[in-house]
Amino acid sequence: MNINWFPGHMVKTRREIKDNLKLVDVVIEIRDARIVVSSKNPEIDNLCSNKPRLILLNKIDLSEDEVTNKWIKELSSKNIGVLPVNCNNGNGMNKIKPMLNNLLKEKHDRLKLKGINKIVDRVMVVGIPNVGKSSFINKIARNSIAKTGNRPGVTKSKQWIKTKVGIELMDTPGILWPKLESRKTQLNLAFTGAIKDEIMDVEELALKLIEVLSVNYSDRIISRYKLKSLSDNPLENMENIARNRGAIIRGGEIDYNRVSNILLDEFRSGKLGHISLELPE
């Protein structure tokens, strides 16, 4: 399963990010709290290296709190702030403006010395597909300006959005990097839906998910799917899950496609509990 997904609009987005950085004061980078490394786009890291940055670890309702807190300590620095958020319900987002004020304190102080007190921060919002950028923008703007969807690649062009909290947002389409070198990165992005299922073999992906979760979250699989125990064979586990969930076709054979979609959907929706697939070194 070798993934190389780099649609044409992503080439354009990379160029636009580089060209438009001079128009903004700070970059908000949104990552998936379950896969903090895999959802970090090295293209964005290099492009935005000279700007103050606020990293939002989104989807904390799906990740383990203890692991997320470790990531916050790991990633925070003088020029980089880190906040855990849930862009769907707004949890943690009230801390964004104070964090931006802290990152841009020197600029704000200079403007206030000139008598400018009504300060608007211009912010570029970046992140990989399906990481929650549009949900973040809609929540902070308090309306549905940005298109949202549970599939990657919804936003296709740059757009400016004004808010009532002294922030102007530049939205950009989700951008992956041209070639996904790491097998683990490929799988983590596929598990969480950052890569379109249409280009994946969902049965192979579900088997790999069982294999990965069996290492640290075997109890979740056993409990959720009412298994007596887990086998060392992921295929055997998948077949037992299928039988317990009624994913059977005529003749008593396993409906592998159906049980694969059940597994992926329930992992992505949090029905398997809070799971973090990556930990700090």
Task: Describe this protein's structure.
With 281 residues, the chain is α/β, with parallel strands linked by helices. The chain has two domains: 8-171, Rossmann fold; 201-268, Conserved Hypothetical Protein Ylqf, Chain: A, domain 2 (Orthogonal Bundle), CATH 1.10.1580.10. The chain contains eleven helices and eight strands. The chain has helices spanning 8-20, 42-47, 65-75, 96-103, 105-113, 133-141, 183-191, 202-216, 218-224, 234-245, 256-268; strands spanning 26-32, 53-58, 80-84, 121-127, 159-162, 167-171, 248-249, 253-254. The strands form two sheets. The chain has a six-stranded mixed β-sheet with strand order 3-2-1-4-6-5, sandwiched between helices. It has a two-stranded antiparallel sheet with strand order 7-8. A hairpin with a 4-residue loop joins strand 5 and strand 6 (167-171).
Low-confidence segments, given as residue ranges, are: 146-157
User: What would you call the structural class?
Assistant: alpha/beta
Number of helices: 11
CATH architecture of the largest domain: 3-Layer(aba) Sandwich
**Largest sheet entry:** 6 strands, mixed
Give the CATH topology of the largest domain. Answer: Rossmann fold
Overall pLDDT metric: 86
Strand content: 5-15%
Number of strands: 8
In what order do the strands lie side by side in the largest sheet? 3-2-1-4-6-5
Kindly provide the radius of gyration, computed on alpha-carbon positions and rounded to a whole number of angstroms: 21 Å
> In CATH's first tier, which class of the largest domain applies?
Alpha Beta
Form type: elongated
Spell the H/E element sequence.
HEHEHEHHEHEEHHHHEEH
Helix content bin: 25-40%
Count of structural domains: 2
Q: How far apart, in Å, are the first and last alpha carbons?
A: 26 Å
CATH superfamily of the largest domain: P-loop containing nucleotide triphosphate hydrolases
